[in-house]
Structure prediction request, 343 residues.
Amino acid sequence: MAGFGVDRGSGSSAGTPDPSISEATVDAKGDLIAGIADNSVARLAVGTNEQRLVVDSGETVGLKYVADTTNYAIAAKGDLLAGTAADTVAALTAGANETRLVADSAQAAGLKYVADTVNYAIAAKGDLLAGTAADTVARLPVGTNGDVLSADSGETTGVKWLALGGFTTGDVKLTLKTTADTGWVLMNDGTIGNVASGGSTRANADTEDLFALLWTNTADAQCAVSGGRGASAAADYAADKTIALPKALGRALATYGSGSGLTARALALVTGVETHPLVIGELAAHTHDTSYSISNTPGGTAQVDANGGGVVGSITSTSTSVGSGTAHQNMQPTLFLNTMIKL
Prediction:
């Protein structure tokens, strides 16, 4: 057979084979004949197994075989094909359970799987995700009822929950409640410390900030540390020591410092007495009424000194006596409330 093909208007008779397409053009199973110009063809050799045919104007026949990344780059359930460059793709292996897909220009595919902090860092209703650094977030546990969110650069997330009113560690408030609010302790003249400390008011990890504040701002005479103060508040806290809360039970509250014309008072100092017995040095200068009695020997005669020096005989002087000598009340009219201090 001289040739095969179709006549595309070359002028040959209908049904006459086109000698320009010869049997020699096809060399192997799968070879294709593709046009390269008007009435001109060329052989496109068959590709290798699993390759696919794509258009490529840079090729002589306008076509070429390439690796079939669409069908054969996928190796497992969940794998993805992602662009790596123009007209180029690569497999992106499925991530581990509960990871999520994020953009990352440093990756070959421009994507990567990361831990799904958005969905899985949330542990309870009301939890928030807050930025801790560029492209990094962390969980902020929900606060207690009535708390408000406040900026605080000292926190990992840059924010924290505060009791309404903006109370912070060491703040004190008055109340008619007999139980401390969450995040507070009653000032009951007790002690605080860590879980192992045996603190009488509270022994819990949430006391660390208040422990450090009292340790730093007060003297041991006012807020004693069990066993004495060591190198630092952190060291004493870690050593399971307790620190005493300022004594507030039954006492009036006053502002510490040195008021004009007043005695300087230390922070957390307690002073004064509820009752007090007066001593002579505390009395105002005064006089007493005095009565006299004159006596002489029986049958004798009282004589007056000729020089006006007095009466010869015995003279007894007695002054009137008043008062009990018991302690007097020092207390001013007072309303008694409970006090709480913020952990």
Q: What stands out?
A: The CA atoms of residues 250 and 336 lie 7 Å apart. Residues 127-166 form one domain. The chain has four domains: 1-67, 77-120, 127-166, 168-282+335-343.
